[in-house]
From TrEMBL:
Stored CDD domains: MFS_MMR_MDR_like
Subcellular location: Cell membrane
Keywords for the protein's UniProt record, in alphabetical order: Cell membrane, Membrane, Transmembrane, Transmembrane helix, Transport
InterPro entries: EmrB-like (IPR004638), MFS (IPR011701), MFS_dom (IPR020846), MFS_trans_sf (IPR036259)
Keyword Transmembrane helix (UniProt): yes
Segments forming domain Major facilitator superfamily (MFS) profile: 6-471
TM region(s), chain numbering: 41-59, 71-91, 97-119, 131-155, 161-182, 194-211, 217-240, 261-283, 295-316, 323-343, 355-378, 399-425, 445-467
Membrane association type: Multi-pass membrane protein
Protein name: Drug resistance transporter, EmrB/QacA subfamily
A GO molecular function held by the record: transmembrane transporter activity
GO cellular component term, pick one: plasma membrane
Length: 485
């Protein structure tokens, strides 16, 4: 039993992190009313967290490789707890936004080092089981977050969604220090400061550009300038890494069509999560469901994701990632297409359930399969780099998905008129819910899932065509005694 305590520590921290990501969406109206925040400020309560994740995931993975994954994980849990306390005590929008940014810093390091810790503590079948269980927890947390948040907000108020992180963080920290084996700092290794700076600028500008594009479209001058500046920073990052003796990111990995295709598949799979943003808008703002009810609609996705992840983890070491990742994207495509086909102008929330269940199965296969494939592609001492790269591409995929699908949602909801989504949602909040508005929302959401299905289908083709099982990489040092064999 002792060998599974590191997995418990990682899963508890990840559950807290993912729930906190989704639960804030449900709490925004209450937060805005309590701290008298503007709509723009509330958007930044969400966006600053996304921005921090986009900027820091790869850097956090690299730092974990250098200074030890346990040390970085424990430090990130402590930082996340302090930031959560600050969020819960925030008296105005400025303090809340700043605290959410610090939460994002801790969250980025926590999420990246989670995968790395599983890679260094478990091997062979046990690694597959550990990644499967962790993936199941992550998928379930993302789906039940709105339900959990709705309960906390209804009975304890919005500040409870942040205060609940304090006891969870203390337990996670205690388990980490007691059962997770410390890894020594890599001899002679140094922090890739120029690479971290260049990648931070590149990913930060790109994430901000995608956030802006989701609100204003890609044709706006500000968005174009941000994208161009991000491209320049990317070129600088590549030039820096090619000259580093110990680069933050091994660019040689991308010479492999298998690895490059894997990263595209990770990006494509994130669009399924981006769809949930607009699904929540349709359920709450147009159908009039409460946060608790809309969260319950997503339970089929959570249940199938949890069950499938747990099962798939047991067989990951036997099956080629081409099969598992390909099957995941195939199910995401089929599930998204089914949601689109079943959505009609007069549809209710029941129309979502069959498609969401299939999407959940795809997520349940894809998360553990992607994590196992990435960890198998890099030596154990660079597990942080591998997991950081995967997390960066997943974050990019979600940010890009929200931006593009937001425009698709608006275009597909043309009947909403000149006021756009914001004006329509505002009218619903005042008790006005004309049938034309509900029908337009269903049309827009249907198109969102069509686009998601196409992206997943492209990923499926790449997965079955190019992804191959990487050669086994011998560990640089014996697996710690407390780990699983």
């Amino acid at each position: 039993m002792r060998r599974w305590w590191p997995l418990t520590a990682v899963c508890l921290g990840s559950f807290m992190l993912i729930v906190d990501t989704t639960v804030v969406t449900v709490a925004l109206p209450d937060i805005a009313g309590d701290v008298h925040a503007s709509l723009g400020a509330m958007q930044w309560v969400m966006n600053i967290y996304t921005l921090a994740l986009g900027v820091l995931t790869l850097s956090a993975g690299s730092i974990g490789d250098l200074f030890g994954h346990r040390a970085v994980y424990a430090g990130s849990v402590a930082l996340f707890a302090l930031a959560s306390l600050a969020c819960g005590l925030a008296a105005n929008e400025s303090v809340l936004i700043a605290a959410r940014g610090v939460q994002g810093i801790g969250g980025a390091a926590m999420f990246v080092t989670s995968v790395a810790l599983l890679g260094t503590h478990y091997s062979d079948k046990a690694r597959g089981v550990a990644i499967g269980v962790w993936s199941a927890v992550v998928g379930a947390a993302a789906a039940v977050g709105p339900v959990f948040g709705g309960l906390l907000i209804q009975y304890l108020g919005w500040r409870a969604i942040f205060f609940i992180n304090l006891p969870l963080s203390l337990v996670t920290l205690a388990l980490t220090l007691a059962f997770v084996t410390a890894t020594p700092r890599r001899a002679g290794a140094t922090v890739d400061g120029p690479g971290i700076l260049a990648f931070g600028v590149c990913s930060g500008l790109l994430t901000y550009a995608l956030i802006s594009a989701g609100d204003e479209g890609f044709a706006r001058a500000q968005v174009i300038v941000l994208l161009a500046a991000s491209a320049v920073a990317l070129v600088a990052f590549v030039l820096i890494e090619r000259r580093r003796r110990q680069p933050m990111l091994d660019l040689g990995l991308f010479r492999s069509r298998s690895f490059s295709s894997l990263m595209f598949c990770v990006t494509a799979s994130a669009w399924a999560f981006a769809c949930l943003v607009f699904t929540s808008v349709w359920l709450q703002s147009l159908l009039g469901l409460s946060p608790l009810q809309s969260g319950a609609v997503l339970l089929p996705l959570a249940v199938t994701s949890f069950l499938v992840s747990t099962f798939v983890g047991r067989v990951l070491h036997k099956v080629s990632p081409r099969v598992t990742i390909g099957l995941s994207l195939f199910l995401l495509a089929v599930g998204s297409a089914l949601v689109s086909l079943m959505l009609r102008p007069d549809s209710g929330w029941q129309a979502l359930l069959p498609g969401l269940a299939i999407i959940g199965a795809g997520v349940g296969i894809g998360i553990p399969a992607g994590g196992a494939a990435v960890l198998a592609s890099v030596p154990p001492e660079r597990a942080g780099m591998g997991s950081g790269t995967m997390a960066s591409f997943r974050q990019l995929g979600q940010s890009l998905g929200v931006a593009v699908l937001g425009l698709v949602f608006q275009a597909g909801s043309g009947a909403w008129g000149g006021g756009g989504i914001g004006a329509s949602v505002e009218s619903v909040a005042k008790g006005v819910r004309p049938i034309e508005l509900v029908q337009a929302g269903a049309s827009g959401l249907s198109r969102v899932y069509v686009v998601s299905a196409v992206v997943a289908a492209v990923g499926f083709v790449l997965a079955v065509s190019f992804i191959r099982k990487p050669p086994a990489v011998a560990p640089a040092e014996p697996v710690p005694a407390a780990s699983a064999k």
